[in-house]
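User: Second chain of the day. Same drill as before.
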Amino acid sequence: MDSLLIWNTRGVGNTPTISTLHRLISKFKPSIVVILKPMLRDDKRVQVGLQLGFRSSVSNAAQGGQDLGFLRPSLTVDLIAVSSQMLSISAAIQGGPVSILLSFVYAKCSRSLRKNPWDQIAVLGAGPALPWVVAGDFNTVLSAFERQGRGIFDSSSASDFADALNRAGLLDAGFSGNQFPWCNNQSGQSRSWARLDRICCNSPWQTAFPAFQSKLRYVQTTLKSWNKDIFGNIFNNVELAEEDLSATEDIVLRDNNPDNLQKLNQAKEKLTHLELCEEIFWKQKSRNR
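Assistant: Same format as last time:
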């Protein structure tokens, strides 16, 4: 497979979006093009595929989903699992070394509703160890560092997501470019950003595609450093964050001006994040016994 193009866009049936897709396809020559939230009727989906030079497609629109994939004829594809939030296919590449597994996610905003794709990821991770990529809009983050601006970091949601990836043996592939691809497009203090989109892969994928693996080496090195800095001092950091929160609460009690309230929210978010790190630490510890 030459390359895989995934675009999270709100509607793909307009001329500017089609023109952009044409340019991207011409530049990268992907074997598969995946559109998240295409907002297309069935007849329009076929028309757009032909416009882009693709005669085959897969979709979870019948299940109320938002994933659409256009496929090159050089791929032999089987539909493995389909739901309203996730679409999984296996692809046999002509002249390629192995069959591969590809999962595309457009998760719900609600934590309770995201349990379904997390369970699907765990089930697929327990199956045959094919090279596997899971990509899309997961509608949650893994840490407080992956969001900025208004809003409280949801440690429970992040823990659910991290646990699903861990159980399936999936590693975050990192990113280049904009750190926060999602924005709520609000103004002033109401504006927020987050890293909701990501690509994850398993170790058989790294083995089968060394070029992809080399890109991960920097990410893995960075994660190891982060692991040492965060988990290596986790208990001390939690204690310091608790003391900082207590001191900030005292300040707010004396003067609850907006600046102090903002510092209080930041202190709460920091403690919540460190408590999540502590929780993940103990989960990893129990699995390594």
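The chain has two domains: 4-223, 232-287.

User: Great, on to the next one.
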